[in-house]
Amino acid sequence: MGLSLFEGFAKSLAMTVLSEIGDNTFFAAAILAMRHPRGQVLAGCLVSLIITTVLSAALGFAAPNLIAREWTHHTATILFFVFGIWSLWEGITEDGDDDELAEAEAKLEGDSKGKNKIKVDPEDKDDLKKTKRPFLTRYFSPIFIKAFSITFFGEWGDRSQIATVGLAADENPFGVVFGGILGQAICTILAVLGGKRLASHISEKIVTLAGGLLFLAFGVHSFLS
Predict the structure, then answer these.
(1) Sorting pLDDT into bands at 50, 70 and 90, what band is 160?
(2) What is the model's pTM?
């Protein structure tokens, strides 16, 4: 099994970039950056993605210590093939390139409407702020918390997150973490600086198909190693 640092780094970087460009959280970051200060959105998304990547890699690293490495290797191989076929199927069957964008916009609009429904009497507003102010907002801005939470829960259980677990179980976990963080940083910066404009020039179908082929290549390499 290839446990070199560079191999894990390269695989994780390529997988992350192709999985995250045009993803739900990519468009969520782009939309948030259009409505709020970019620095706070970027910070919230990056911190969330770094935590998710580290947790995923740690889970993958711990798996061989709980289960025989042979079984974790076979499981990772199967996951790569499953995600490869899944991505190719999505790329072939999906017609539009705006599904992820529409879904992200609908989710953010729903959150905004839900907040707007809460009305407070003006005379009680100051007292309410003092007594019921969330603990986290005392130390972090609401925009940071919103970007963090949307990204974290959007990524947890996502295909790329599960693939990171499988990759860390089969490759050098430090390389997987470094490659994943760099890939996430590249995608998030692109999203914040101009995700919607970038999406108009890149076909989501092509990115999805390329990601599927990459997963299959990882599967073949894992199977032969």
Answers:
(1) confident
(2) 0.67
What tens digit of pLDDT does each residue of 13-39 get?
988 888 887 677 787 888 788 878 888
Tens digits of residue pLDDT in 86-120: 878 877 887 555 555 556 656 656 555 554 444 44
Write the secondary structure of the chain as one string of H (helix), E (strand) and C (coil): CCCCHHHHHHHHHHHHHHHHCCCHHHHHHHHHHHHCCHHHHHHHHHHHHHHHHHHHHHHHHHHHHHCCHHHHHHHHHHHHHHHHHHHHHHHHHCCCCCHHHHHHHHHHHHHHHHHHCCCCCHHHHHHHHHHHCCCHHHCCCHHHHHHHHHHHHHHCCCHHHHHHHHHHHHCCHHHHHHHHHHHHHHHHHHHHHHHHHHHCCCCHHHHHHHHHHHHHHHHHHHHHC
| 55: Cβ contacts below 8 Å, ≥ 6 apart | none
How far CA 223 is from CA of 31, 70, 196, in Å, comes to 40, 11, 38
**In this structure, are residues 9 and 154 in contact, taking their beta carbons and an 8 Å threshold?**
no
